[in-house]
Amino acid sequence: MNDTPRPIHAAGCVLWRRAPGTGALEVCLVHRPRYDDWSHPKGKLKRGESALAAAVREVREETGHAADPGAELPTLRYPVDGRPKQVRYWAAEAVSGAFVPSSEVDRVLWLPPAKARARLTHPRDRGLLDALTQRLEHH
After folding, report:
1. Given 3.90.79.10, 3.90.870.10, 3.40.50.720, 3.40.50.150, which CATH number is that of 15-137?
2. Is the full-model pTM beyond 0.90?
3. Beta-bridge partner residues of 109
4. Residue environment code for 109-135, b if the CB has 16+ CB neighbours within 10 A, otherwise e
5. Banded pLDDT at 2 (limits 50, 70, 90)
6. Which of 24, 56, 57, 115 is 20 to 30 A from 95, comparing alpha carbons?
């Protein structure tokens, strides 16, 4: 008998854009009232859904934006209520759309990476910003 809890599989994006007017890099953070936290858009995979499809779907559901996914970023692994959780992330450019508040996400912020780093609730999410900025600087 295997007592190891089944892992939770989730996916998300570090959503970015060039600021209107200045062209400076901005990253989108979502506020989830249920947890009162600021994070990158992400969510659990649906049955039979690929991680990348889930990531793009979650971005649209949480931010209202269509995402153009690019490079895969580091996968985060951490426990949630005694179960292992694995979240795969991609860098994704926001290509169109507009935010509409919902019960799941009530606010979004577009911030320069340094301000986004300070606003993120969970330290584990900050490395994703570093990975994104490194990728964008080298392209």
Report:
1. 3.90.79.10
2. yes
3. 29
4. ebbebeebbeebeeeebeebbebbbeb
5. low
6. 115
